[in-house]
From TrEMBL:
InterPro entries: RNA_pol_sigma-70-like, RNA_pol_sigma70_r2, RNA_pol_sigma_r2. GO terms for biological process: DNA-templated transcription initiation. Coiled coil: none annotated. It comes from the Bacteria. Residues 25-91 form the RNA polymerase sigma-70 region domain. Keywords: Sigma factor, Transcription, Transcription regulation. PANTHER family: RNA POLYMERASE ECF-TYPE SIGMA FACTO, RNA POLYMERASE SIGMA FACTOR SIGV. It comes from Brevibacillus borstelensis AK1. The keyword Amino-acid biosynthesis does not apply. It holds the Pfam family Sigma70_r2. This is RNA polymerase sigma factor. Transmembrane segments: none annotated. GO terms for molecular function: sigma factor activity.
Length: 122
């Protein structure tokens, strides 16, 4: 697909044509998935990140500058979404670690309860 054809699909998508967005997806999906796979550590997360990329592409098409190449623009979207994904994972990790630090150990019996247990055993 040429850049001119892509621009026409973008204009059509902006007007509400879902088939035009499907064409954009079909044209760019291999490139997007390959780029995401290189940037995401966990390959199982790649499909989730790709989905987030296309949600953002759809929401951001109105900002696309026709003077710039489409591939450069979509690469920027991919990089931002991968950063967001990694930031989200880091937050989850930090919350998990913080939660582990805040867990209270099993309470050890105090001297009074030990005394009462010992007294009741006699």
């Amino acid at each position: 697909m040429t850049e001119t054809e892509l621009h026409e699909c973008i204009r059509s998508t902006r007007s509400g044509n879902k088939d035009a967005f499907r064409k954009i997806y079909a044209h760019s999906k291999d490139y997007v998935y390959g780029t995401v796979s290189l940037l995401v550590n966990n390959k199982q997360d790649a499909a989730d990140v790709v989905s987030e990329v296309y949600v953002e592409v759809f929401k951001s098409l109105y900002r696309y500058d026709f003077e710039k190449p489409f591939r450069s623009w979509i690469t920027g979207v991919v990089i931002r979404q991968v950063r967001n994904w990694n930031r989200k994972l880091w937050r989850k990790f930090r919350l998990y670690e913080r939660g582990k630090l805040m867990e209270l150990p099993e309470p050890s019996p105090d001297s009074e309860s030990l005394f009462l247990r010992h007294k009741n055993c006699k």
